[in-house]
Design a protein that fits this description.
heterodimer; A: alpha+beta; Jelly Rolls; 7-stranded antiparallel sheet; 5-stranded antiparallel sheet; 36% strand; B: mainly beta; 4 domains; 47 strands; globular
Chain lengths: 191, 668
């Protein structure tokens, strides 16, 4: 009897170990790259606008904080941006730490940033660098700890003349985006 | 009894010999390929962590198109070499190299980079071997794992390197930079002790990146995530206040592995003071690759530059070359800024961009393909040709470059091809003892473009050079201009070394360098609001504003204020072709009071037709006339003086190409 119980116990342990290992392999190895086109928004608030006709933008379309004349006056007034934004709902498949990248185009040194707001977390400034008039991926300074489920992402106007083409939410620390990426519509929540 | 062991030993020896021969000559795939990703276009890197040990065998394929066309990295640790199979034939495309296994224990980062026809294999951040594949550029990547372990390889797409920073932003948005060591901060000159001295109130951008390096070198890297950066240049404005050093870093992986262009203060009397040095730091151990006496003057701004391509580094100060040396160990990595000393250092206007050169000293001919002729290597680092043929290399995508080669004709006609296309069409600059010729060559034969008498002494070595810029080719013999002309069919492409009729024509010291992009003149409005911004009146002047006509009436001419010498291009857009009657007149080298001295382009359009007519005149002499049918109602026009030629192109298609006597002056 004792030997039988030991055998059963060992078998159960072995099965648990195998299942655990399998689960660890299956779940730990999942890397997610969620790519959304900014023109595929859930809501948009002026002055943010969708523009088309740029062959260097993915799908030829992007969203923009339109250039103002005179340019860059909002910063001098102490208020950054005009409240305009583009808003998305994104389904995150698995809890984890996610980095957000935005494929952006800057007009000049006074048109080179956006606010990024995820859920109700504090806004981060994306951009501020000096590479102008070309599309380039810019990383949000801090990663986000996200639960599995639906999250909101808002790209909010900060400096006029700034454009956004796509954004990427990734838990894969190896992913360094370079060119325009293929959209992953499965993670876009449309309702 | 002894026969079997001897036989076995013999067999083993033969197998071993065969293995060596196979590894050096043409290895085949050792098994089925495990593909990593879908086919990728353009430049990519394959990355993984590997624990390689001596004797491990591993193969990676890149640019895989089918079983007869692919690139192969064959690893028999510690040896590694690139090969290419094209049409089923395999050949080495780089020298074998050795993987730095010593000291690299445990899993190490491993990468294969394919960029601009160049292949590079690095292990633990150090170069193992390089290759060149001008034939295959796209395809899948994969591996054949025999004994080495391949855990989780992935493909990283690359894109052109283009990064800049003038530090115009808040202090809390510095995340573009990774500060490895030292105390760095963005600060405005207006907040600085030096504000009054530096007249910060007159600066349009008073912000810069400041550093103090109390504990060893201070290093800050730009875009550290972009680990795959190779073949690039970095430049920055730099100033230091005291006895320390300032500089740039390249190919930086971390604070213990980087290249540094270090320039010490003239006040520093130490062993490494008052001099410029190129340092290679590997595993924290610095090695001086090149040095030059002379330090910087404290509190003076300088423009520092450093560039790396094919393992060769060049450093400049204010645009003048100061140091150059090969650096073969470090493979890739970020660019950044470097400082030493407790006195404050300042950096501004950082630019990082692609950089490419092509040098050949003919230690081998692995990067070249022969098209006719009997080509071989001499012992003295030259390629020798008997008969008639061409030795080609480079990329079809090369544009706007200058190629040069040292040639010993030895009774042959010799030449240099530029803008060579895949089908063999090219611009050929050819010399014999009597004349220099520019020809368009190809499967259809030779078409003369330009020719002039040029007495060249017998077998004396010559330096032939040819530049191609938007299809316009200029040539030189020993630095003297020879012939020039438009080769419109070949706006860019590879290069070729040409020999005809001799038995011993020799070529060496090939160098291809790329032309700096043309900088547009700053045509801006005059600043007139001095009452609103009095501080601007002192410094804000536009370099080349347009002068408004005295009378604004049809036909009135806007003239630029600037004087332009040498080559000049006026590029502009013409609209409403076919929608209105009208003409546009542009003058090169003219004066407002003496328009007859300039070169004038008149473009005419008539309502109802998309035909754009062009006429170029010099005074009362017509130089050329042509017309083009447009697809739309607008087009981009370039009106250029290049060398002794006037060129007109519409939507990048040549329309008029005429020789011209020299002219200078303003543009209107």
């Amino acid at each position: 009897m004792t030997n039988g119980r030991v055998r059963i116990g060992a078998t159960v342990l072995l099965i648990c170990a195998l299942v655990g290992t399998l689960a660890a392999v299956v779940f730990a190895a999942q890397r997610y790259n969620i790519v959304i086109e900014t023109e595929h928004y859930n809501a948009i608030k002026p002055s943010t606008a969708v523009k088309a006709g740029d062959t260097t933008a993915s799908n030829g379309k992007y969203t923009e904080y339109p250039l103002k004349r005179p340019h860059a006056t909002s910063e001098n007034s102490g208020v950054q941006g005009d409240g305009g934004s583009v808003y998305f709902k994104v389904r995150v498949p698995e809890q984890g730490n996610y980095t957000v990248w935005v494929r952006t185009w800057w007009y000049d040194a006074c048109g080179n940033s956006f606010f990024l707001v995820v859920d109700d977390k504090p806004a981060q400034v994306v951009g501020g660098d000096g590479t102008f008039k070309t599309w380039k991926w810019r990383k949000a300074p801090q990663p986000y700890a996200l639960t599995a489920g639906v999250h909101s992402v808002k790209i909010q106007n900060r400096e006029d003349g700034a454009r956004a083409d796509q954004f990427l939410i990734t838990n894969d620390t190896r992913t360094i985006p370079t060119r325009a990426m293929a959209e992953t519509p499965d993670y876009r929540v449309t309702e | 009894m002894h026969a079997i062991p001897r036989f076995a030993v013999l067999c083993l020896a033969l197998v071993g010999l065969a293995a060596v021969v196979t590894a050096q000559a043409a290895p085949s795939l050792a098994g089925p390929i495990t593909f990593i990703d879908t086919p990728l276009e353009g430049d990519v890197a394959v990355r993984d962590d590997l624990n390689l040990k001596a004797g491990d065998k591993l193969q990676f394929v890149v640019n895989y198109q089918d079983e007869s066309n692919y690139g192969l990295l064959d690893i028999a640790a510690p040896q590694a070499c690139f090969y290419r199979t094209l049409g089923g034939t395999t050949k080495p495309i780089g020298e074998p190299g050795e993987i730095a296994l010593a000291g690299a224990e445990g899993a190490q980062p491993f990468a294969i980079l394919r960029r601009n026809s160049r292949l590079l294999f690095a292990y633990a951040g150090q170069v193992a071997c390089r290759g060149w594949d001008g034939a295959l550029a796209n395809g899948k990547a994969g591996y054949v794992a025999a004994e080495g372990q391949v855990a989780e390889p992935y493909v990283q797409a690359m894109e052109p390197i283009r990064s800049a920073d003038a530090f115009v932003r808040d202090k809390d948005t510095l995340h573009f930079w990774t500060e490895l060591t030292g105390a760095w901060q963005i600060k405005s000159l207006r907040d600085d002790d030096q504000a009054e001295t530096m007249e910060a109130d007159k600066s349009a951008n008073a912000f810069n990146y400041q550093v103090v390096a109390k504990d060893g070198p201070a290093i800050s890297l730009a875009e550290k995530d972009s680990w795959w950066w190779t073949d690039y240049r970095v430049e920055a404005s730099a100033r230091s206040q005291g006895r320390g050093a300032m500089g740039l870093v390249l190919l930086a992986r971390d604070e213990s592995n980087y290249l540094a262009f270090r320039w010490a203060s003239v006040w520093d009397t130490g062993e490494h003071g008052n001099r410029a040095e190129l340092l290679e730091v590997v595993g924290g151990e610095p090695k001086v690759l090149a040095e030059k006496p002379g330090g910087f003057v404290p509190d003076q701004w300088y423009k520092l530059g450093a560039a790396v391509c094919d393992g060769r580094v060049e450093c400049t100060i204010d645009g003048l070359p100061v140091l150059q040396a090969p650096s073969t160990r470090l493979a890739f990595g970020s660019a950044g800024l470097y400082a030493e000393g407790e006195d404050q250092g300042f950096f501004d206007d950082v630019v990082i961009a692609d950089y490419e050169t092509f040098r050949e000293d003919f230690a081998n001919m692995l990067r070249w393909e022969a098209a006719g002729g009997d080509w071989s290597l001499t012992n003295g680092g030259e390629a020798r040709c008997a008969g008639t043929g061409c030795l080609t290399s480079g990329r079809l995508g090369w544009t706007d470059y200058r190629a040069e080669v040292r040639v010993t004709p030895n009774k042959a006609k010799v030449g240099l091809q530029v803008a060579r296309q895949a089908d063999g069409r090219a611009a050929l600059f050819r010399v014999d003892g009597q004349k220099a010729q520019l020809l368009m060559v190809g499967p259809a034969g030779e078409t003369p473009i330009a020719e002039r008498d040029m007495k060249l002494g017998g077998g004396k070595p010559l330096t032939l050079a040819a530049s191609v810029e938007r299809g316009f080719v200029r040539t030189y013999v020993d630095g003297e201009p020879a012939v020039e002309g438009m080769v419109a069919e070949c706006p860019g492409g590879a290069i070729g070394l040409y020999a005809d009729g001799g038995k011993d024509a020799r070529f060496g010291q090939v160098l291809v360098s790329f032309l700096e992009p043309k900088r547009p003149a700053q045509v801006t409005r005059e600043f007139t609001k001095v009452s609103e911004h009095p501080e601007m009146a002192e410094w804000a002047s536009s370099r080349a504003p347009w002068v408004q006509p005295a009378k604004m009436e049809p036909g009135a001419t806007w003239w630029t204020k600037g004087d332009y010498y040498g080559d000049v291009t006026v590029a502009f857009k013409v609209r409403f072709v076919g929608l209105r009657d009208g003409n546009v007149k542009v003058t090169l080298g003219g004066e407002p009071e003496r328009t007859e001295e300039g070169i004038r382009l008149v473009l005419s359009a008539t309502k109802g037709t998309k035909t754009l007519k062009a006429q170029v005149t010099q005074g009362t002499t017509e130089l050329g006339r042509a017309e083009v049918e447009l697809q739309s109602s607008s087009c981009n026009v370039r009106f250029a003086r290049q060398g002794a030629h006037i060129l007109v192109s519409v939507d990048d298609k040549p329309l008029i190409d005429q020789p011209l006597a020299a002219a200078t002056g303003a543009q209107g």
